[in-house]
Amino acid sequence: GSGVRIVINTWPVTNSTKAAWDTLLNNGSAVDAVVSGCSQCEAEQCRGTVGPNGSPDEEGETTLDAMIMDGSTMDVGAVGCLRRVKTAIAVARAVMDHTDHTLMVGDLATKFALEMGFSETNLTGNRSLSKWKAWLAKHCQPNFRQDVTPDPRQSCGPYTPKTQTMGDPEEQDSPGNDIQSAFAHNIGEDNHDTIGMIVIDQSGRISAGTSTNGLTYKIPGRVGDSPIMGAGSYAMNGAGGAAATGNGDVMMRFLPSFNAVSQMQAGVDPTTALQKAMAPIIKFYPSFHGAMIAVNMDGKYGAVCHGYTNWTFCVADDSSPEVQLHFIDC
Ligand code: SD4
């Protein structure tokens, strides 16, 4: 092996970093570590934006996007708009490990997951339900183009709240606060989070993955950048890995993770590679919000962000036993 071990992930979700690092310490592979790190985030429902009980769509449903990529083989498994199954990154791994396919979507991804032994549950919880109820007062606006009014759909709402059936141990949002935060979200400041993670293991294999419940109040059927290889994340042995978070509808148009890995393959350092990958997005969409992380095969890493005031990511490597939180200005 190369001797370089590292875990790097988006956002201040240190338990996920720790879970991935512990997997490496127990001789797990880079893929194992990405899956355990992202699974931790799903189980914690971290930031309300990964796993169940977050980011309701227009009809109040939470759906999940995830991918896992093994840079030592270039195998990928991904799920988009996964319904009624909590463990999106594990289902993505099942696509990678047990099929010749790469990306499965919607109800048929659910059917596949059930056949693989995953269980079916309602992904709605108190948090997602109260967010959605708050949004109802202003339904059918945020995800339609501002220049197209009125909303041309005939079928858009009014929606009827469904009953909650999922357990919700860590409910934090009060409905009152939620109305304010829902409207704040509608102006686009911080309406989305994704865990994106890159790992190099003791054998020198690199892996990258993502997990998210996507964009809040999305139009049902919307799939973001997170499960799209080259957009949400990418990893290639000999080159490096990258992962993205932010406004996926815009970012996926530029395949920024693929671009960053290609830059690193050509010898560009991680931070410069990310700057080059972000530059065309900024040029065409100066007001977008997003951030990226990258690591090369030497374990050198970087991060960039745009549109946030500042941004946080996590690293664990052999230089320090504790998870390191890194803050950058955007
Ligand atoms: C998406 N990129 O679905 C994801 C959401 C997110 O920070 O990251 N956000 O567009």
UniProtKB/TrEMBL annotation:
GO cellular component, as recorded: lysosome
One example of a Gene Ontology biological process annotation: proteolysis
The species this protein was found in: Magallana gigas (Pacific oyster)
Signal keyword on record: yes
Family membership: Belongs to the Ntn-hydrolase family.
Residue positions of the active site: 194 (nucleophile)
Key words, A-Z: Autocatalytic cleavage, Hydrolase, Protease, Signal
Protein name stated in the entry: N(4)-(beta-N-acetylglucosaminyl)-L-asparaginase
Site (Cleavage): 193-194
UniProt region (Disordered), positions on chain: 145-182
Job description of the protein: Cleaves the GlcNAc-Asn bond which joins oligosaccharides to the peptide of asparagine-linked glycoproteins.
Documented EC number(s): 3.5.1.26
Classification via Pfam families: Asparaginase_2 (PF01112)
Lineage: Eukaryota, Metazoa, Spiralia, Lophotrochozoa, Mollusca
Keyword Protease: yes
Annotated InterPro entries: Ntn_hydrolases_N (IPR029055), Peptidase_T2 (IPR000246)
Catalytic activity: N(4)-(beta-N-acetyl-D-glucosaminyl)-L-asparagine + H2O = N-acetyl-beta-D-glucosaminylamine + L-aspartate + H(+)
Positions of substrate binding: 222-225, 245-248
An example molecular function term from Gene Ontology annotations: N4-(beta-N-acetylglucosaminyl)-L-asparaginase activity
